[in-house]
């Protein structure tokens, strides 16, 4: 009986140490300090995370000059979308890219993922006015895209990754959803270019993106340098 009690005591200590180590690792992933007024005071790998653009900025997402400023048509060509592709637009907003991709993947599926119910409501409203039947609206969270494992050929993230409150957890969630040969298209305003008229915290350098994705087990396949203001970085699983 005494021997069993000792074993139980030792197991309890070991479990406690494991939990503490896990908590420490999670805690040490991020740091917290005051920074830019456009940031949330939370830092990851030397980068301050930016505030999420609220649904109040929906009109900016739908601005008429967006095609000229971002050349979205060229971005879609960069993605080489096949008719049977399953694509997830993470941080889909009001669906600007969703409704352009849906006809191209007409035999596939487009997941429109966002954390703001107002954005998702706008996508549903637009969906009623189209003939596209391959759009599925998904409510994500701060830590998960809420997609089935091994279900997606391509993931698109346009000017949203820098706003993830939990980038480590989100990329891990995306990796699980990606198929083995799936591709992640990370679109971010070029942080190296001071001429890009976007606030500093809402831009990213290629070096920073590569560093963060590498830590998550993703490698840069190529950076397609043909967009006016943005990087078009293509990442694959290691």
TrEMBL record:
Residues 1-19 form the signal peptide. One of its GO terms (biological process) is methylation. The keyword Signal applies. Pfam families: Methyltransf_11. The keyword Acetylation does not apply. InterPro entries: Methyltransf_11 (IPR013216), SAM-dependent_MTases_sf (IPR029063). GO terms for molecular function: S-adenosylmethionine-dependent methyltransferase activity. Keywords: Methyltransferase, Signal, Transferase. Residues 89-186 form the Methyltransferase type domain. Coiled coil: none annotated. This is Methyltransferase domain-containing protein. It comes from Costertonia aggregata.
């Amino acid at each position: 009986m005494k021997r069993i009690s000792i074993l139980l005591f030792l197991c309890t200590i070991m479990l406690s140490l494991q939990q503490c180590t896990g908590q420490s690792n999670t805690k040490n992933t991020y740091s917290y300090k005051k920074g830019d007024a456009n940031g949330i005071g939370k830092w990851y790998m030397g980068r301050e995370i930016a505030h999420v653009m609220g649904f109040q900025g929906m009109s900016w997402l739908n601005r008429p000059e967006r095609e000229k400023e971002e050349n979205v048509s060229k971005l879609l060509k960069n993605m080489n979308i096949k008719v049977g592709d399953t694509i997830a637009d993470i941080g889909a907003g009001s669906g600007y890219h969703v409704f352009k991709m849906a006809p191209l993947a007409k035999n596939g599926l487009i997941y429109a993922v966002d954390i703001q119910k107002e954005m998702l409501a706008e996508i549903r409203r637009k969906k009623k006015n189209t003939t596209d039947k391959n759009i599925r609206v998904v409510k994500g969270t701060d830590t998960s895209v809420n997609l089935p494992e091994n279900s997606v050929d391509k993931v698109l993230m346009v000017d949203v990754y820098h706003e993830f409150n939990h980038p480590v957890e989100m990329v891990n969630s995306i990796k699980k959803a990606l198929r083995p040969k799936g591709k992640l298209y990370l679109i971010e305003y070029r942080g190296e270019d001071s001429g890009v008229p976007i606030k500093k915290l809402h831009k990213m350098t290629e070096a920073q993106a590569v560093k963060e994705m590498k830590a998550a087990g993703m490698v840069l396949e190529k950076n397609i340098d043909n967009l006016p203001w943005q990087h078009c970085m293509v990442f694959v699983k290691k």
